[in-house]
Amino acid sequence: MDHAMRFAEPDSIEEVLSLLAADPEARCLAGGATLVAMMNAGLTAPSLLVSLRKLPGLASIDPQADGAVRVGAMARHATVAAHDGFAGAQAILAAAARRIGHPAIRTMGTIGGSISHADPSADYPTAITAADAVVEIAGPEGARAVPADEFFVDWLETALAPGEIVTGVVVPPDATDAAVHYEKFTRADGDFATVAAAACVALAEDGAVAALRVAAGGVAPTPIRRREAEAALIGRPLTEDGLAALGAALADLSDPIDDMRGSADYRRRLLPRIVGRAVRRAAAAFTARSGARSGTGPQAGGVA
Amino acid sequence: MSADGDAPTSVGLSSPRIDGAEKAGGKAKYADDLSAPDMLYGAIATSPIPAGRILGYDLSEARAVPGVVAVLTAEDLPQRRVGSFVKDETTLARGRVRYVGEPVAAVAAETREAAELAAQLVLVDYEETPAVCSLDEALAADAPRVHPEQADYARQGDAAAEGNVFWSAEIVEGDPDAAWAECDVVVEEVYETPAQYHAYMEPCSALVEPDLGGRFTVRSAAQSIFYLQGRISEELDLPMARIRCVAPRIGGGFGGKNGVNVQPIAVALARVAERPVKITLSRSQDIEMLRSRHPARIRMKTGAKADGTLVAREAELWFDAGAYVDESPAVMSFGLLCSRGPYRCPNVRVRGHAVYTNKLKAGSFRGFGNPQATFASESQLDALARRLGLDGLALRRRNAMAPGDHWLGGQRVDACAMRECLDALEARMAAEVPALPPPEEGWARGVGVSGLSHISGLMGTSAAVNLRSDGTVALSTGVVDIGQGSDTVLPQICAEALRLPPEAVAYAAQDTDSSPYNWKTAASRITYTAGRAVMQATVEMRQRILEHAAELLECGVGDLELAPGGAVRIAGSDRSVSFREVAARAFNRIGGPIMGQHAFAFDGPRFDPKRAAMSNFAFDNLGVYVFGAVGLVADVDRETGKIVVQKVWSAHDIGRAVNPQSAEGQVQGAVVQGLGYALLEELIWEDGRLANPSFMDYKIPDGLDAPAAITPILVEDAPEETGPFGAKGVGEAGIVGVAPALANAVADAVGVRLTRIPMTSERVLDAIEGRASEAPASRTA
Amino acid sequence: MTAELDEDALVPLRVTVNGRAQALACGGGETLLTLLRERLGLTGAKRGCNQGLCGACTVLLDGQPVRACLTVAATCADRRVETAEGLLRGARLSPVQQALVDGGAVQCGFCTPGMTMALTALLRAEPRPDAARVREALSGHLCRCTGYVKIVEAALAAAEAQAQKGADGAAAGDADARAEGAAP
After folding, report:
1. Cβ neighbours for A228, distance < 8 A, ≥ 6 positions apart
2. N or C end: fewer C-beta atoms under 10 angstroms in chain C?
3. In this complex, do A6 and C51 lie within 8 Å of one another by their Cβ atoms?
4. What is the DSSP letter of A222?
């Protein structure tokens, strides 16, 4: 029932926060792709929509002095997808953004809206978890920063306290200059992932794994990572056995559900396969890139 | 022949759609685009439970919502049950509810928000009763009855109703019991097909305007204005004279808008409120309230000689019909009729059952029972070919029907290009399959084919045509264009019969006040039956034009011929009169325009009781048959089970393509709808409730899911003598063989045969890895 | 529906729709689709699902395709909205619209305006896309009638016709022809 729904479009974060503080039924409006769909379905009826569109600096993507990149909460998926200022593992954000929904959704949806909704089958949560990004939060108690893997708490639940909003995502610099691949398995084009994996891979001159970060989505209430399993592959050539071990470690941590996109059993079976693809393709991209840069490249880009 | 030869002026030309510009320009008006002064919005309260008794209503909260003008329940409506085969339905649930989503009450209010809120506040006291939400549950020995009062319903015939089975039918030819002994090989399998949602892009909608004389004008999403008028009349006990149905633009139907949807409810509200009422369903309501394709289980057995000659076929079909009979006897009967397929096979027994369950109605849907039967039949032929080490196309060609053969049931088939379709398909695939780029690493490629056939005909139709004073032509029929193109194709037929270009024919909008009768836009019938009526009406008018021209030219009618562009001349001379001159004379002499009219119902060969024993069959006679063959190349990801269809070829015995571009569009659209059925689409119930009533959860193919290459092959080798310029229908045929062709391609690619669709990636992976599938069609707690 | 709106919740809105500046008032949660269809009578954008999943309501907002059903109208303040009706020049169809008609890409037509807007945006940004780019731009636009083949072919034909016209126009110094493809 939108007849009582009010609308505000403040131009300062302070005003946003005070509106949210004054009305627990108020909701922030970012791109609208999720919130308005829920309103249209009668699933939610906020008393007040607080549009973030006019907030300064929230829509831009800005390089930081230390090599990090700050993606404003209101940056559209299409903007992130096309951004060429990411280096190394940071680029996993663009790779994931390119796979979100459809073109018109990518011109509307924002990274802040997506991660605040915290659907584990969505693309950004997995990507920013793999990138070790930090979520910038503003709230009545001031600003704070929460690492991605602490930000996602449970299915559709984040570390945001009442009255807090996401203002940006800071993606740290990647000294290893990894190549990335976002592998997404869906039932149909543009759907949320049945299973997805975000991989950032760097290889040494001899082909051994120099750096590896992998997050999986769609298989648990939040994106999942196994850092110790990633570490176990460092310093050795990429092998099918190694990938299988990583996949198995992630599968151990997974807790998938049955839904229209597939049964829990199917997701468990897909998980190591999708992870393997993501890592192999990231490694191949690394090799191809090194080859293009140096004319030679690591000896064993593929899987031994 | 005349100097300008026989070059067609209209038929065979790919004329752009008459309605194309207004649609592309955003100006076309569909029902929800219309409004009326002082209009109210209607909303429908639906059952939240799959089965239960209605003990009472509390409408006080709903009525108290500001802006609410009317709230109706079954108690406010005439006490009657309606239905074509069994009178088991009411406009709003009366006494019992039988599926989640069934209309129970209706509200009209000043705003949509108020109407929706009030609908939510309609309080119904239900006593929940046990539900049956699958074939197994419905067929169990002690199953609760979906319609305990079934014995009291008025119905056509007794149709062997028992328990939740409300209609059983059978066709027997030859001696199937004895024939198995003659077979060198026999294959037997059980096949399962899903509830598919039509997913027309326009959700159902109706605008009803009452006038002060007690008449209601209905503009709505429907595949027939006349069926609608009759049904509203029956449901609401209103004479047809008080109901005027007008067709706005219709955003697709595919059978889903074949019956009534929200129109009777909207009329009932407008009648009480004495104001215009519009009801437009949300997408989720459209899915939960209306109809799906029948989910089916088919046990089929086929026997053949070692050379591939078919000897015997047995099949038993169970069609899950949902909560009301609707058109199920016809759909199931037609599935039976298609269970032999377009092949010679002398010994056949097919038996079918339509079964009540506590789910939304299953109704007509492009293919009308045939896709289910053909999935079983063509999968089985492929399994047979593999067992015998024969090529699939060769096996089909060996058994393919030819002109003069008889369809199952004994109807003689005069025009049939089945073999030509198989040949054309084979030639194209032989040339084009090897040229495709190879599959990705880890993917296995398969090639699959299927024969296909369908009906074109059914029921009555009519057309009227007259010559205007300027020599142009006015045509009217009662055919509703739901997107398939009849507004373009029917004038093309009329124009050709007069040697005019298509634009010389003005085609009237459809309105029960003025249009000649037509049954429905269904059964691939319009080009054939309405086209024939248009043709005959035009021929009748043409004869009168010639008679007037003969008097003007002072010659005999036999000396005359039509010249292209609207003139009559003495053959072999340059003496002519224009249609304008002829028309002017007619207005003088007979006081009005030269007219022609014709009514048509299929009058060709019928079932033959000497050839086949048929019991409880829901049709008298049908129409002509169309034939075809479809082939495709599919790649299967062995690691995930994902199927990607690379290319599809679909060959169709169309008789004559009146508008080739339009016919191609029908085929391409049907192929993609068939791929959705084969790969992706399945309504799923959990605890009696639909679990996926949205495009978020129920996916249909988009442009990246659909193959980039779909090649229609229009075979015009066998003109249908009784059709207009040799034409017969192609609206449904394209969907019929797609699922089995894909199952056959998957078997070719990875060596396992899926007998259940949709072939989701999960089911494919389960099959590849030899696991029993956990992917459910229905779950109950 | 406008009549019953809570006056306090009405948001004044200045927005340019199809080149015409409009001063309106809308509900706080009202979508652009409702505004276009029910307030302005522009029914070219269709309500196929109201969930952003079918594409039939797609319009251009500042030149970019968006789902009107997911766009809160109040966020369109001081922005530019284009709908299928806005591509018409009198009774003349735009090149994309004409190509869809000529190419047999219109059947029931319910998805057509949304497809038209997505293709219009694509051809403005990329005058000569290949078939893969066209399919990408049309992804998320559901069509149940055509199987998409003729829509993609029509889009390529529109690009070809536009390029041809642009070349001819340039040769003849015809600025009007070039303007066809340009954003206003």
Report:
1. A249
2. C
3. no
4. S
CATH 3.30.465.10 residue window(s) in chain A: 61-171
Residue B531, domain extent: 20-27+459-600
* Chain B nearest C-alpha distance from C125 (Å): 20
Q: From the list A4, A53, A105, which residue is nearest C52 (CB)? A: A105
* pLDDT per position as a tens digit, B19-31: 999 999 999 999 9
C181 band by pLDDT with thresholds 50, 70 and 90: very low
Predicted ipTM of the assembly: 0.96
Which whole number is the average pLDDT over C88-93?
96
Q: Are A185 and B775 within 8 A, CB to CB?
A: no
Note the pLDDT of residue A292. Answer: 80
Q: Which CATH class is domain A2-51?
A: alpha beta
Structure tokens at B565: 């562009």
Per-residue pLDDT band at A296 (split at 50, 70, 90): low
Q: Is B69 on the interface with C (CB under 8 A)?
A: no
pLDDT digits (tens, 9 = 90+) for C162-174: 998 877 766 554 4
At B149-180, the pLDDT tens digits run: 998 999 987 777 889 999 999 999 999 999 99
Q: Which residues of A touch B700 (CB under 8 A)?
A: 188
Neighbouring residues of A92: CB distance < 8 A, sequence distance ≥ 6:
A127, A130, A131, A180, A182, A198, A199, A200
Return residue ranges of chain A for CATH 3.30.390.50: 179-294
| pLDDT digit string, tens, across residues B503-560 | 999 999 999 999 999 999 998 999 999 999 999 999 999 999 999 999 999 999 999 9
Buried b (16+ CB within 10 A) or exposed e, A204-228: beebbbbbbbbbbbbbbbbbbbbee
Antiparallel, parallel or unpaired: β B205-210 and B103-109? unpaired
Kindly identify which residue of chain C lies nearest to residue B488, measuring between CA atoms.
Answer: C107
What's the topology of domain A61-171? 3.30.465
Sign, CA dihedral A63-A66-A67-A70, equals negative
Residue B227 lies in a domain: yes
Query: What does the alpha-carbon distance between residue B218 and residue B266 come to, in Å, rounded to a whole number?
Result: 9
CA distance linking residue C153 with residue C158, whole number of Å:
9
- Co-location of B560 and B615 in the same domain: no
- Are residues B540 and B630 part of one domain? no
Is B59 part of a structural domain of the chain? Answer: yes
The CATH number of A179-294 is which of 3.30.450.20, 3.30.390.50, 3.40.630.30, 3.60.20.10? 3.30.390.50
> Which chain C residues are Cβ-neighbours of A77 within 8 angstroms?
none
Q: What is the CATH number of the domain that holds B355?
A: 3.30.365.10
Whether B91 is covered by a domain: the verdict is: yes
Ranges B418-422, B695-699, C30-34, C171-175: which has the least confidence: C171-175
**Domain count of the fold of chain B:** 3
- The pLDDT score that the predictor gives to residue B161 is 81
Q: Cβ of B284 and A191 within 8 Å?
A: no
Residues 6+ apart with CB under 8 A from B427: none
What domains are there in chain C, each with its CATH number?
7-86 (3.10.20.30), 88-179 (1.10.150.120)
Closest partner residue to B113 (CB to CB) among A3, A41, A189 is A3
CB-closest option in A6, A103, A108 to C9: A6
Please enumerate in sequence order all residues whose Cβ is within 8 A of that of B528, keeping only pairs 6 or more positions apart, or say none: B456, B457, B623, B624, B720, B723, B724, B727, B728, B729
Query: Helices B531-553 and B579-589: crossing angle, nearest 10°?
Result: 80
Last residue of one domain, picked from the residues B581, B600, B619: B600
Instruction: Return the sign of the alpha-carbon dihedral for residues B175, B180, B182, B187.
Output: positive
By the 8 A CB rule, do B277 and B218 touch? no
For chain C, what percentages of helix, strand and coil (3-state, to nearest 5) are there? 45, 15, 40
Same domain, B564 and B630: no
